[in-house]
C-alpha cells in the first residue's frame, strides 16, 4: 500500500527547505553589485553556481527511500534555479558540485556514478535552455520536463526494486512527476516574487539616493558622501576640493521657454558636468539649479583648472530644448579646498558657498576660489 504520509512529509521537508533557502538567497543577491542575471559578471555567476550546489547538497539529506514508493528527490531544482538566474556557467557549477556530493555521500559505485552523470547532464541541458530567448516561465517548464525525462531514464537504467516493479513503478513515477511539476510551480512563483521584490528594493534604494530628473546623486547622497570623504581626507591627510555650481539667470529660462525646457537644460547640464570632470569625481544635484562636485585628492590648483574647463564647456554647449530650439547658458562656480585653503573640512561647504556668492556678485560666468 502506498505510504501517502511519506509523500507529504517529504514534500513539506523539501518545500520548507527551499522556501528558507530562497529567502536567504534573495537577501544575498539584493545588492546591485551582485545583481544576478545570465549576463552578470563571472564571479557573481560562479557564486550563484556554488550556492546552488550547497542547496542541492542540503536537499540530499531529505532524500528518504520508502519500499513502496520512489525516493522524493528535488535536487534538480537547485540546478534549474541556478540556470534560470545565472545561466549556463552557474548551472554547470551546480551540477558539478551535486555530482561530487553524490560520490562523497554514496562512495564510488555504480549508483553514485549514474547519479553524477544524470546531474551533470541535467545541468548541461538546463544551461542550454537558459540561452534560449524565450519567456522565463517557458524556460522553467522546459527545464523541469527535461530533468524528469532524464530522471525517468536513470530509474530505468539503475537496477532498483522499484524500477523492476512494472506497473507499480510507472504509476508511482506519474505521481512523482505530478509532485515535481506542482512543487516546481510553487518554487518558480516564489523565486519570481523574491526577484521582483529585490528589483523593487534596488529601485527604491536608488531613487532615495539619486535625483529623479538628472540621475545624479541627490542632496541626501551628497551629504553622506561628503561626510565619508571628509573623514578619509583627514585620516589619510589627502586633499579634498568642493565645487558648487549655479546656473546664471536660470529663472529667465523657465519664464521664457517653460519649465519643461528648464528641466531639459538641467538634465543636459548634468551630462556636461560628468563629461568634463574626472571619472572618479562625484557629481550631485543639490537642488534647483545648484550642482556640486566633490574632487577627491585634488589640490587647489588642479581644482581651479577643472572648474574653468567645466565653465568653458557649459558656455560653448548648445542646450537642446523640447521645442527644437537651442539655448546657451553660463554658470558661476565657487571652489574651496582642504587643507591648503580651508583648514577644517566642516567649513568646506560654507567656504565654497561664499566663493560662489562672490562669483555671482562680481559678474557671473566665472570661477572664484575661496581664500
TrEMBL record:
* Assigned keywords, A-Z: Membrane, Transmembrane, Transmembrane helix
Q: Which residues cross the membrane?
A: 12-30, 42-64, 76-104, 110-129, 141-161, 173-191
For this UniProt entry, what's an example GO CC term? plasma membrane
The protein's matches in InterPro entries, at most eight in alphabetical order, are given as: Diguanylate_Cyclase, GGDEF_dom, Nucleotide_cyclase, Rev_trsase/Diguanyl_cyclase
Classification via SUPFAM superfamilies: Nucleotide cyclase (SSF55073)
Q: Which residues form the GGDEF domain?
A: 238-371
One GO MF term on file is: diguanylate cyclase activity
Q: Which GO terms describe its biological process?
A: cell adhesion involved in single-species biofilm formation; negative regulation of bacterial-type flagellum-dependent cell motility
Protein name per UniProt = GGDEF domain-containing protein
The species this protein was found in:
Clostridium muellerianum
Amino acid at each position: 500500500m502506498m505510504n501517502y504520509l511519506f509523500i507529504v512529509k517529504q514534500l513539506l521537508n523539501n518545500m520548507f527547505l527551499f522556501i528558507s533557502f530562497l529567502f536567504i538567497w534573495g537577501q544575498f543577491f539584493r545588492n546591485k553589485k551582485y545583481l544576478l542575471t545570465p549576463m552578470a559578471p563571472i564571479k557573481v555567476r560562479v557564486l550563484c553556481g556554488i550556492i546552488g550546489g550547497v542547496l542541492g547538497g542540503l536537499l540530499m539529506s531529505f532524500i528518504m527511500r520508502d519500499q513502496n514508493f520512489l525516493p522524493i528527490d528535488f535536487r534538480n531544482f537547485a540546478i534549474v534555479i541556478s540556470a534560470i538566474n545565472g545561466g549556463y556557467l552557474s548551472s554547470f557549477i551546480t551540477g558539478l558540485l551535486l555530482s561530487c556530493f553524490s560520490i562523497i555521500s554514496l562512495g564510488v559505485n555504480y549508483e553514485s556514478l549514474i547519479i553524477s552523470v544524470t546531474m551533470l547532464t541535467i545541468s548541461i541541458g538546463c544551461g542550454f535552455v537558459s540561452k534560449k530567448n524565450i519567456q522565463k516561465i517557458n524556460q522553467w517548464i522546459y527545464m523541469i520536463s527535461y530533468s524528469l525525462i532524464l530522471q525517468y531514464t536513470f530509474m530505468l537504467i539503475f537496477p532498483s526494486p522499484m524500477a523492476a516493479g512494472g506497473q507499480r513503478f510507472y504509476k508511482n513515477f506519474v505521481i512523482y512527476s505530478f509532485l515535481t511539476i506542482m512543487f516546481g510551480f510553487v518554487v518558480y512563483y516564489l523565486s519570481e516574487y523574491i526577484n521582483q521584490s529585490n528589483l523593487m528594493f534596488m529601485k527604491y534604494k536608488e531613487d532615495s539616493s539619486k535625483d529623479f530628473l538628472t540621475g545624479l546623486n541627490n542632496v541626501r547622497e551628497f551629504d553622506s558622501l561628503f561626510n565619508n570623504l571628509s573623514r578619509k581626507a583627514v585620516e589619510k591627510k589627502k586633499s579634498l576640493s568642493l565645487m558648487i555650481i549655479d546656473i546664471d539667470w536660470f529663472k529667465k529660462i523657465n519664464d521664457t521657454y517653460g519649465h519643461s525646457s528648464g528641466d531639459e537644460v538641467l538634465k543636459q547640464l548634468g551630462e556636461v558636468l560628468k563629461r568634463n570632470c574626472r571619472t572618479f569625481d562625484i557629481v550631485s544635484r543639490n537642488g534647483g539649479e545648484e550642482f556640486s562636485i566633490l574632487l577627491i585628492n585634488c589640490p587647489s590648483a588642479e581644482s581651479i583648472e577643472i572648474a574653468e574647463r567645466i565653465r568653458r564647456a557649459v558656455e560653448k554647449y548648445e542646450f537642446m530644448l523640447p521645442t527644437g530650439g537651442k539655448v546657451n547658458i553660463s554658470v558661476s562656480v565657487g571652489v574651496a579646498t582642504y587643507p591648503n585653503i580651508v583648514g577644517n573640512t566642516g567649513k568646506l561647504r560654507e567656504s565654497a558657498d561664499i566663493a560662489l556668492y562672490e562669483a555671482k556678485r562680481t559678474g557671473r560666468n566665472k570661477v572664484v576660489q575661496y581664500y
